UniProtKB/TrEMBL annotation:
Protein name as it appears in the record: Peptidoglycan bridge formation glycyltransferase FemA/FemB family protein
Similarity remark: Belongs to the FemABX family.
Annotated transmembrane regions: none
PROSITE patterns membership: FEMABX (PS51191)
Pfam annotation, one family: FemAB
Domain of life: Bacteria
UniProt organism field: Streptomyces fragilis
Keywords per UniProt: Acyltransferase, Cell shape, Cell wall biogenesis/degradation, Peptidoglycan synthesis, Transferase
Length: 375
């Protein structure tokens, strides 16, 4: 069947999200307010009985001097990706967005393709013959994801990046690192931390490292740490106004949608991070640890507190966000990966992002524009 697709209200969208166990924070109405340089709209899929059965946040951005849009649904939409009639879901979306003036539709199906447990990733990092995560045998594989990729190809969709590649530009990460809580008690989750990770956390506590929550007025202090870390890593930081806008938009939507944490030692902020939450899914986002106080391990104390709080909030999944598909390369990347491995989590590969070009000429212009920006 073909579903009826139309714009929905913020209230309709939020009611749908509230009925789901996990929806990306990039697929909630408030994220459209965060991305103020994009237009945004909430879309809803309705069945023959008029029930809202799917939803998505679409972001619209025009190419310079062209009144046509890239229509982007990051980590969405939230529909039945197992449906045998995939065109019944995606066809109305393409038609609707074409009428809005889209020249390309880009989406990121929230479908897991493969997982690698911590032991497997450690083994891959230690093996000089393995350079890419995809070269290591997965701990779990989802056959439905490969079938979905084949059906998307058949409908005219094209992957933004090849299998195993890292995403760039506006894309969301294909590979992430997650700690599945499930319904396990907190002590069982913590028992999965590596011995070294637990020792470092205890070292932080013995040294007197304190982890505290901050408010809107503390975002400037967070941003100083974040900007220092970005400069160290050769990245361009987002402005403070971006995080202030995020705080207002997300917390106006739900008071626990966003939290700010600091790790302090002897009165000085050593590390900080933002926590985002939608339903049972919690993300560690925008970590900022510019200092190298390995003697007191402030980041271990920070993560321990944030994971404990996430569990208390009812999370079933703690998401540390993007990693690259590489298990080799520079030591900075490997140090970050080893730190995450200490949580006892797993590397996860999603299906990646997909494009449906509605204008081949303008789609090519988008590729050239992104390449020119160096994004």
């Amino acid at each position: 069947m073909k579903y009826l697709l139309r714009a929905i209200t913020r209230e309709e969208h939020l009611a749908f999200v509230a009925g789901q166990s996990s929806v990306s924070h990039l697929q909630i109405p408030s994220w459209g307010e965060v991305k103020s340089d994009w237009r945004s709209a909430s879309l809803g899929w309705f069945d023959e009985r008029g029930r809202l059965v799917g939803a998505g946040l679409v972001l619209l951005r025009a190419l310079p001097k062209v009144r046509r849009y890239l229509a982007y649904l990051p980590e969405g939409p939230v529909i039945d990706w197992d449906s045998e009639d995939l065109d019944g879901w995606l066809g109305p979306m393409i038609a609707y967005l074409r009428d809005l003036g889209a020249f390309t539709v880009r989406m990121g199906p929230p479908v897991v393709a493969r997982r690698w447990d911590a032991a497997t990733v450690r083994g891959a990092v230690a093996d000089p013959e393995v350079r890419w995560l995809r070269e290591a045998p997965p701990s779990a594989e989802n056959p439905a994801a490969r079938e979905l990729a084949e059906r998307l190809h058949g409908l005219g969709w094209r992957p933004v990046t090849a299998e195993g590649e890292d995403s760039a530009a506006v894309n969301q990460p294909r590979y992430v690192f997650q700690v599945p809580f499930g319904d396990r008690p907190l002590r069982e989750v913590q028992a999965g931390y590596s011995p070294e990770w637990r020792r470092n956390a205890k070292k932080a506590w013995r040294a007197g490292v304190e982890v505290v929550r901050g408010g809107y007025e503390d975002l400037a202090a967070f941003h100083r740490l974040y900007a220092e870390a970005a400069e160290r890593d050769g990245l361009i930081p987002r402005p403070l106004s971006y995080f202030q806008r995020m705080w207002i938009a997300l917390r106006n939507e739900h008071p626990d949608r966003m939290r700010l944490y600091f790790s302090r030692f002897e009165g000085e902020d050593q590390a900080a991070a933002l926590m985002l939450a939608v339903g049972e899914h919690v993300w560690h986002a925008y970590g900022a640890a510019p200092h190298t106080r390995t003697d007191v391990c402030p980041d271990h104390a920070l993560q321990w507190r944030m994971m404990s709080d996430a569990h208390e909030m009812g999370a079933t999944l703690y998401d540390l966000r993007g990693i690259t598909g590489s298990v080799a390369g520079d030591e900075q990347h490997l140090a970050l990966l080893r730190h995450r491995l200490g949580t006892g989590g797993e590397a996860v590969e999603y299906l990646g992002e997909w494009d449906f070009p509605l204008s081949k000429v303008l789609h090519k212009a988008l590729d050239l524009y992104i390449a020119h920006r160096g994004a």
